[in-house]
């Protein structure tokens, strides 16, 4: 369920596309190195929390941004709502990215209008993704159905899905995400000049890549 009415946002370049930010993971690899730390609340060099930086790229490129979180992520929830995101909460027994995607897709199916014809799925631990890349991927979705960015030959995030794929997203579960769906359907790969499509935060050493 949405926790709050989001703040108004500037009109995005692709109003047909809804952003989905997946942030409900436990970040166990990060916590194993830095016990008690939530990687999505850790600060980047400019003082922005990882999860908030990740949300901003989607907010600039899409009509709405829906963040999927756990019930216990109060601090991040407050930041994202203040930034204009809707927040939906995974079930207590959710077990991985597939469950998070399904939660978001079910919410979209129930709470979207006919003009919203695609969604753009990004990960909350990828704070260097550029808004222009999100817009580039979103722009191609109506023509191609599923679109993913590539940088130096490697596929990354965000991945966009046309509305007809939402029921398949809603049926996902477990920790495999949308890999099976991507294997079943053609994916249009677009080359981008953005290393942020591959760069995530797994351990504290990833927070300052230029060090």
UniProtKB/TrEMBL annotation:
Q: Which residues form the MobA-like NTP transferase domain?
A: 19-185
Annotated SUPFAM superfamilies? Nucleotide-diphospho-sugar transferases
Domain of life assignment:
Bacteria
Q: Which InterPro entries is this protein grouped with?
A: MobA-like_NTP_Trfase (IPR025877), Nucleotide-diphossugar_trans (IPR029044)
Keyword Magnesium on entry: yes
**A Pfam family it matches:** NTP_transf_3
Recite the UniProt keywords alphabetically. Answer: Magnesium
Task: Give the protein's recorded name.
Answer: MobA-like NTP transferase domain-containing protein
| Protein's organism | Achromobacter piechaudii
């Amino acid at each position: 369920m949405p926790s709050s009415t989001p703040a108004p946002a500037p009109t995005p370049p692709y109003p047909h596309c809804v952003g989905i930010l997946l942030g409900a993971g436990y970040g166990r690899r990060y916590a194993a190195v830095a016990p008690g730390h939530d990687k999505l609340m850790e600060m980047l060099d400019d003082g922005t929390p990882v999860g908030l930086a990740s949300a901003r790229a989607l907010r600039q490129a899409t009509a709405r941004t829906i963040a999927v979180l756990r019930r216990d992520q109060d601090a991040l929830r407050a930041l994202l709502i203040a930034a204009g995101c809707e927040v939906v909460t995974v079930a207590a027994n959710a077990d991985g990215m597939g469950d998070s995607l399904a939660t978001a897709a079910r919410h979209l199916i129930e709470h979207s209008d006919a003009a919203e014809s695609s969604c753009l799925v990004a990960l909350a631990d990828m704070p260097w993704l550029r808004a222009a890349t999100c817009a580039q991927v979103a722009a191609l979705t109506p023509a191609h159905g599923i679109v993913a960015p590539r940088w130096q030959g490697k596929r990354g995030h965000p991945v966009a899905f046309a509305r007809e794929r939402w029921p398949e997203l809603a049926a996902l579960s477990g920790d495999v995400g949308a890999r099976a769906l991507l294997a079943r359907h053609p994916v249009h790969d677009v080359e981008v000049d953005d290393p942020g499509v591959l760069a995530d935060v797994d351990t504290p050493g990833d927070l300052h890549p230029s060090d």
